[in-house]
Specification:
With 207 residues, this protein is an alpha+beta fold. The protein has a 6-stranded mixed β-sheet, covered by helices on one side. Strand 5 and strand 6 form a beta hairpin. Helix 4 runs parallel beside helix 7. It is globular, with a radius of gyration of 16 Å.
Amino acid sequence: MRRGRHAGPAAAAAAAAILVVAPARAQDEGLDGVGHLLGSEEATLTVVEFGDFACSACALFHEATWPTIRREFVETGRVLWRHVPFVLGFDRGKEATRAAECAADQGAYWEMHDVLFARQDEWTESEELDDTLFGYATEIGLDGGRFEECIDEDYGEERTKRANEAAKDLKVRATPTFFIEGFRVQGALSVEAFRALLEDPSAPGSP
């Protein structure tokens, strides 16, 4: 159970989750090379998630909803998930995104993704942020020297820049924001609400 200063805003964001019609453009247009994929590329449905690792509502979604959605839809090959980490402006979000992109350079994006959301209360409060992030890197089996070099040189800067541009182009102003078959969904929806959207993504009246 998450506690501390993030719990209140996250709960409020979940309560305010809304479904609105997305821009008419195709949801994957212009996203080649942006974000990180999980699931089968043969899936009939793609979900694009824009998130900031320091966003409390994003952490709530990945704690309460994502494990079930991942198990039922992504791991079964029904949904291809594209997570687009960008910097919305939350404190320490830029540093966390850099760590995730450096993990991606060693093929461990999703492992770092999971740690960052699971321990958001820890690293956002850490007095030694660099050391904390390096600790996560070693925990998930990364080469520490390569990780440090990547952080120092910011090898993932161009990917983050493209993600920020894509978020701006799609007018993403809140996190998490999801694009599902032409609809924009904002907020940390419950398992039941998100499952309903994936079962019938063409229904704008879905919860």
